[in-house]
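Q: Can someone sanity-check these two? First one:
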Amino acid sequence: MIRYNSIRSVTKFYMKKNKYLKISKGKKLRYLHNYYKKKLYIIFLPGFMSDIDGEKPKIFKEYATKNKLGFLAIEYSGHGKSSGKFTEGNITKWSLDAKISIKKIVKKNSFILIGSSMGAWISLNQFKYFKKQIKGFIGIGSAPEFLDRLMWKKFPKKIKNEIKRKGVSIIKHGDSKVHQRQYEYPITYQLIKDGRANKVLSKKINLKINITMFHGQKDEVVPVSFSRKVLSIFPNAKKNLIIIKNGDHSLSQKRNLKKMTKELSNLISKVS
């Protein structure tokens, strides 16, 4: 029986030396990891420009530790403290980062994927390589194909022309008056074009697994229709869509994380 105890502070637990996985010459990825031989793993794949210092990877790792399950979370190249430049990355490269990390660390063990925002897109790409090992999938504010469907589609003509001409543009996101801060990040033309080459919402995945999508009712970044589209490509799966009342895109509040770990326990109980 999987146990879920009340979420408590994990700050001290995570103040450890960073771990890095060397995946090629001069390239290393920062990661979080629990190891239990021949045990089910939980794999967390973060979102666009995210790292593994947030609440979700910490709570899922704590959950895995309490229940003696394997755990892996990575920072893609150009993200967080991993090596590489963000402007040189794309969905193909970040999906490869995940693939190599899983092969090196999880090896032949079965696992449940948890993908947050862009991490759900990266997760869907992993089904090409690990169909026999994937036993469940949880999406959080899932955003597959967001680069073209959400970003490029909404960019004004001036920004599109700048990206095409210069190869990159610095995009500002967030209202500093409302959110107290504004984010800036570079969007490259190669990133947009690579995103178009990584279409996943038109390809059926015929696995009989349990899948749950969490989506915030007030997600200001990604519409809930994206989570519904993810569910639609799994015709044989047992599917569940949980819409969090008043929830935002990150769903990192303690009450939401508790719902996720409860659902994770539910998925694990159904793994044969």
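And here is the second, same format, sequence then tokens:
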Amino acid sequence: MRLTGIRKIYNMKISIRMDDVTPDMDWAKFMRFKALCDLYQVQPLIGVVPDCQDAMLHIDEPEISSAAFWDYLKTLKDEGWTIAQHGVTHVYHTKKMGCFPLNRLSEFAGRSYKQQYESLKEGRKILSAHGIDTDLFMAPAHSFDKNTIKALKKLGFHRMTDGFGDRPYIRWGMVFYPISYRQGSVLKKMDKQGYTTFVVHANTMEDRDFERYEQLFADCRDRLVSYRELVRVEPVGRSVFGHWKEYWMALAKFVLVNLKNRRGKGKNKK
């Protein structure tokens, strides 16, 4: 007998990544978000900038010593959090969009292979000197090119957090763990199976953002997965069409976000 009117609920699984972790980040906001993660047993990915020289990320005077900062990262790792190398200095050197055109500025895209390799090597060296070893990379502004990939592979990186899709995929010999195109769309997809990642910048969060994430964590308990669990998911291959689709989705989002920002500025001037 065939049953009708019954829909199987799969629920897209959601992991969390936190960008811009530095000794002088906004510690109050970081710890506020960490408290939410602890309450709802969320174990995210954190992007650590090895040698942050981005003035926009120098928010607070370091609340702890340099040694204590690196020890704290190891404590987070022991608690189940995952660490990625988030660029090197987080300073943008070019206005190239790279292979994933979400932004028109980059620490890496457009620079020579040698420049990128030496920079990434130094970043990896800094993390390693503090007892942090990872093969997962997080590009500032989501921007990288084929020379970035080549240099990363040479240095022993095998994974990146970026791209669009509903499960980890392989490209250029690297495993990519996709981020969400639009969080609202993910939350409405009750009939689709897969995995995605929500990107969090705690430094710039306001009260309403913390409230939204607390509600999200409460409503989506059964959909949340640790990043450790995500990296154990078997990656899939992807067609050339899939790669082109991702590229044009990223470019479309770049255009739409910029149009929205311009309209917002126009309204503020009136």
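A (reply): Looked at the second one. The CA atoms of residues 23 and 67 lie 10 Å apart. Residues 13-269 form a domain with the TIM Barrel fold (CATH 3.20.20.370).
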